[in-house]
Amino acid sequence: MEIFKLINDGSKILEKRNISSHKLDSEILLSKALKKDRSRLLLNLNQFVQEKDIENFNALIRRRSQREPIAYILREKEFWSKNFYVCKDALIPRPETELLVENIVKQFKNKNISILDVGTGSGCILLSILSELKNSRGIGIDISQKAIKVAKNNQIKQNLSNRSQFLLRSIDRIYGYKFDLIVSNPPYITQKDYNNLDDDIKKFEPKIALDGGNDGLDVIKKVIYKSKSILKNNGTLAIEIGYGQYKKVSKILKEKKFKTKFLVRDYRENIRCILSTLQK
Ligand SMILES: C[S@@+](CC[C@H](N)C(=O)[O-])C[C@H]1O[C@@H](n2cnc3c(N)ncnc32)[C@H](O)[C@@H]1O
């Protein structure tokens, strides 16, 4: 069977499952099955594909039609222009988190700082920041043993084992360190919103990475409370928050004597990250 026919067949199957990116997904999965760039496939649409590759492709289409995210099927996701290893044990890095990284990199360019990444997941935040701040060091923590394994995999992949460390630890249990920067993309979805998430997310991504408790603020609060004692004087706390959480989170920050330094908005003008400093 030819490449164009396979792409169309795969696309139709995915379209029937209401997957809006059906054509693109079919092309990406065929390029995975054939281990060839997507652009090469598109330039050779009439080429015949071997039976064993067709079987592999059909198996990938079946996985996607069950709504498994493309990133888990490919076992990689691009973040901050680098390929990160991902699997169902860690959240798939999101584009909005790149906004957090971008603003931190701007603020700390050429500085030599110590960083704590709380809820590191795949390690994407810490490793991306360290790839830019060449004289800085950092620790990533997570309560998921499986996520720490994913982060360690990426630490090697990004060649950053000499400046990063990943520990299985809850934020409550960090003692004896002081940091210039604490960064976190914590789980912040409310229990109610969690139940309404798309199947792509709810059925495949770890609940522990998304569910922020009743009001979505359980882990955010822990990060703010603990940061008071482990942030250096004038240190920065940078937190990603969910839609509509700004008022509640900024109130907690104020109560704990943090002063807002910078707000990061997404493309729809929603405040998605708060950078604040601790005034002691
Ligand atoms: C939204 S995910 C973020 C993953 C990654 N940093 C990213 O941006 O893609 C939140 C992570 O926080 C972790 N987590 C939840 N509660 C935690 C806690 N008390 N201390 C440390 N990590 C926690 C979860 O296991 C999950 O990996």
Describe the structure.
The chain is an alpha/beta fold. It has 2 domains: 3-66, Helicase, Ruva Protein, domain 3; 79-278, Rossmann fold (3-Layer(aba) Sandwich). The chain has 12 helices and 9 strands. It has helices at residues 3-16, 22-34, 38-43, 51-65, 70-74, 95-108, 124-132, 145-157, 191-195, 199-202, 218-230, 246-255; strands spanning 76-79, 82-85, 114-118, 137-142, 164-168, 179-184, 231-240, 258-265, 271-278. The strands form 2 sheets. Strands 5-4-3-6-7-9-8 form a 7-stranded mixed beta sheet, with helices on both faces. Strands 1-2 form a two-stranded antiparallel sheet. A hairpin with a 5-residue loop joins strand 8 and strand 9. It is elongated. S-adenosylmethionine binds next to helix 7, strand 4 and helix 11. S-adenosylmethionine is lined by residues 91, 93, 97, 118-122, 124-125, 141-144, 147, 170-171, 185-187, 208-209, 219, 222.
